[in-house]
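Narrative of accomplishments. A recurring question from our advisory board has been how the design workflow behaves on a single, concrete structure rather than in aggregate. To address it, we present the structure tokens for one chain from the evaluation set, followed by the sequence designed for it. No filtering or post-editing was applied between the two.
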């Protein structure tokens, strides 16, 4: 039996457990990731982007192990509509999880905290993840 969300120690600071608890834990979810990188990795090992690539190399197998898949990634080129201030993102990713609970399982796992999250923290000056529910999609996870 899985522990309740209250019993889980947080793998990352700022994980919005309260907001995620309001969602259907068994419903599929696509996480919109917005990243802004440090110029230099906080650990001094290359650029922030390089640290994020190390994070991705570790995290993608964790996502797949939980039935998820990386749908799309790309460079954030320019704000096309809306306020420019505060929206200068470097990179965007769409990640499908079969359920909100699968996402939480990964994010609160000891392996994520120990192996992956340090690279994310070293690479990202800011990382926002927005949980979305499907209204329409041409993307179908395989």
């Amino acid at each position: 039996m899985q522990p309740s969300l209250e019993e889980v120690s947080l793998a990352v600071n700022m994980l919005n457990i309260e907001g995620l608890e309001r969602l259907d834990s068994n419903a599929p979810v696509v996480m919109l990731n917005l990243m802004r990188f440090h110029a230099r990795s906080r650990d001094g090992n290359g650029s922030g982007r390089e640290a994020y690539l190390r994070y991705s190399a570790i995290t993608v197998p964790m996502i797949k192990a939980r039935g998820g898949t990386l749908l799309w990634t790309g460079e954030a080129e320019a704000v096309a509509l809306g306020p420019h201030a505060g929206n200068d993102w470097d990179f965007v990713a769409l990640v499908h999880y079969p359920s909100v609970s699968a996402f939480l399982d990964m994010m609160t796992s000891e392996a994520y905290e120990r192996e992956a999250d340090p690279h994310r923290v070293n690479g990202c000056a800011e990382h926002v993840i927005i949980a979305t529910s499907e209204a329409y999609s041409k993307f179908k996870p395989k």
